[in-house]
Amino acid sequence: MSYLTEDSETRLIAQARAVRETIIQMLVAAGSGHTAGPLGMADIFTAFYFHILNHNPKDPHWVERDRLILSNGHIVPVRYAAMAHAGYFPIEECLTLRRFKSRLQGHPEREVLPGVETTSGPLGSGLSQAAGIAYAARMDGKKFHTYCLMSDGEQQCGNIWEAAMFAGRNRLANLTAVIDRNNIQINGMTEDVMPLEPLRDKYESFGWHTLEINGHNMEEIVDAVETAKAVTEKPTVIIARTIPGKGVPEIEYDFRWHGKPPTKAEAEQFLIALRSLGGQVHPSDHA
Amino acid sequence: MLNTNAQLHSNLFDADALLAPTRDGFGKGVVEAGQKDERVVVLCADLAESTRAEWFQKEFPKRYVEIGVAEQNLAAVASGFANYGKIPFITSYAAFNPGRNNEQIRTTASLANLPVKVCGMHAGVSVGPDGATHQALEDIGLMRMQPNMVVIVPMDAEEARKATYAAAFNGKPTYLRFGREKSPVLTTAATPFEIGKGYTLWESESPHVAIIGCGTLLFEALKAARALEAQGVRTTVINMHTVKPLDTDLLYRTASAVHGIVTVEEHQAAGGLGSAVAEFLAEHRPVPMEMVAVRDRFGQSGTTVELYREYGLDQQAIEAAVLRVAKR
Question: How many whole angstroms separate alpha carbon B193 and alpha carbon B176?
Fold first, then answer.
């Protein structure tokens, strides 16, 4: 039995497509930024902002909110897009991404845009911050849950394993990490650049409960998080298998799309590809 | 003569003057801050005894967090604590904290503008026998260059206690620098301390040269000032415990009243207090200046006395610098 009803799943799938469209539009407008990662994480961010998180977009500083920490700040366009669709700020503001004076900085800053929780970009320190929040919250008997979304490439950082050791030793059950296991990083495939496998075994041996899912299946995403919350004796890591560039078949799996935005002409093609998914939306539906 | 307003110990030049390491002041101050406010927590990277984090641990075991030998995690976990609403002090040797975790401090504390209190112990060459690896001489510069970060270098254990307590409640990312070795306790409970406000320790009549220093070397500066006065060279000695934000009002007034300035610190000349003073004066009130500081070298093993002599940081070096600047 799933925690997700069929209706909710249908709603989330449509929402994720809207988030992907916004991501492509904002990257074209910005003229720089990362494409593959944000598209690959659109389903997970949508699941969080529209189903999992206990949050209030109108009150981003609400003290009892769940904390969603994004460690690999470079995929922040997906977070901005999901936040805008969830009502944190107007969707039009997404087009200011990476512009001078914009609240949507190239990498997220907590003081600039309420709701992004942390300032991140330099890889490898998000899990530590999430662990610090979870530890402090437990000291005060707070009931909220802390989530940390990470990339797979940043698992090469020593700081990640310092944090993994700390969270495991302190049995931070109110902490759940999600690794975007898309197998690419800037210089190529992770297993060619600096192998991570067996990644699941590594976390197991550091005292974590581990799960592995298809990161594009809403039911699996929601069920894994519910399972993680039910594990009360240790932190959980969800290794989410994702396809970089997911939704645009032309760039899926291609590590060259890690760090560049589409051109205007490419974006038009990408949007047609996205809207044609499953034949449910026709390109001509949108001007 | 000693500035009476500073309410210093009257016997501070005597052989029986009270001695204590500034890290002891941290240990006391952080316990006091912890008694005052339960948001105060201490995180430690496997150096509880030598950093005096242990004093807090004994008093508040549930608010003491062991990180192990993992300084990057030390800084970033603390940012998580501060992000939640705690007031975390992170403790290790300055060579590693902020020496090793500079980027984590930069991104997750300074840029994020969270009140993480970075406590760098065993700073400077005075840590002695441990040698160059453990003698942080770049830490003031590293921390001073980060926007939002406050930088405080207490000159004795009593001032370290007050600085630690004050830093707990300033709402800002803050770097506090402490030494390992015992040094004279010059200040008393009545001596004023306010972050960002320097003050005069010694003033000859109509001073010709101002000695502006931070940290325990100010005792060497005071001995130099006394010896110089006996030779008819008039100086004033200022405790600039807060390197950032610099007390530019005091600096401007002082530079306007004297012929030249000598800065004194146990740090590289590049990036430290001397640099900060020079940056301000060059733009606003240029006067002849000399820096008593380490000149682009690493430290080495030795006693504090031997190393102060070798690196030109002791009373004689300060006197020589004053005489040089007086003639320029």
Answer: 14
Give yes or no for B67 touching A (CB within 8 A).
Answer: yes
What kind and span of H or E run contains A89? none
Q: What is the DSSP string of B80-110?
A: HHHHHT-EEEEEEETTTTTTT-HHHIIIIII
In this structure, the answer to whether residues B27 and B166 fall within a common structural domain is: yes
Instruction: Take residue B310 and report the two structure tokens written for it.
Output: 């070798």
B201 with B286, same domain: the answer is yes
Taking the C-alpha atoms of residue B31 and residue B41, their distance in angstroms, rounded to an integer, is 10
Q: What DSSP state is assigned to residue B122?
A: S
Q: What is the CATH number of the domain that holds B201?
A: 3.40.50.920
| pLDDT tens, position by position, A157-214 | 999 999 999 999 999 999 999 999 999 999 999 999 999 999 999 999 999 999 999 9
Instruction: Report which of B312, B307, B308 is spatially closest to residue B290, judged by C-alpha positions.
Output: B312
Half-sphere exposure (Cβ direction) of B39: Cα atoms closer than 13 Å: 14
> B166 with B217, same domain?
no
Is B46 within 8 Å of B74 (Cβ atoms)?
Answer: no
From residue A257, alpha-carbon distances to A19, A71, A121 in Å are 18, 20, 18
| Cβ(B63)–Cβ(B199) below 8 Å | no
With an 8 Å Cβ cutoff, is A136 touching chain B?
Answer: yes
Note the ipTM here.
Answer: 0.95
Report the distance separating Cα A116 and Cα B119, nearest Å.
28
The enclosing H or E element of B291 equals strand B289-294
Q: Using a CB-CB distance cutoff of 8 angstroms, which residues of chain B are in contact with residue A125? A: 72, 75-76, 79, 104, 107-108
pTM: 0.95
Six-digit token string for A203: 């976390």
Strand B117-121 to strand B174-177: parallel, antiparallel, or no bridges (unpaired)?
A: parallel
Q: Report the C-alpha gap between A181 and A195 in whole angstroms.
A: 12
Using CA atoms, how far apart are residues A120 and B283, in angstroms rounded to an integer? 35
Q: Which residue of A has its CA nearest to B65?
A: A135
CB contact (8 A) between residue B72 and residue A165: no
CATH superfamily of A6-285: Thiamin diphosphate (ThDP)-binding fold, Pyr/PP domains (3.40.50.970)
Residues 6+ apart with CB under 8 A from A233: A171, A173
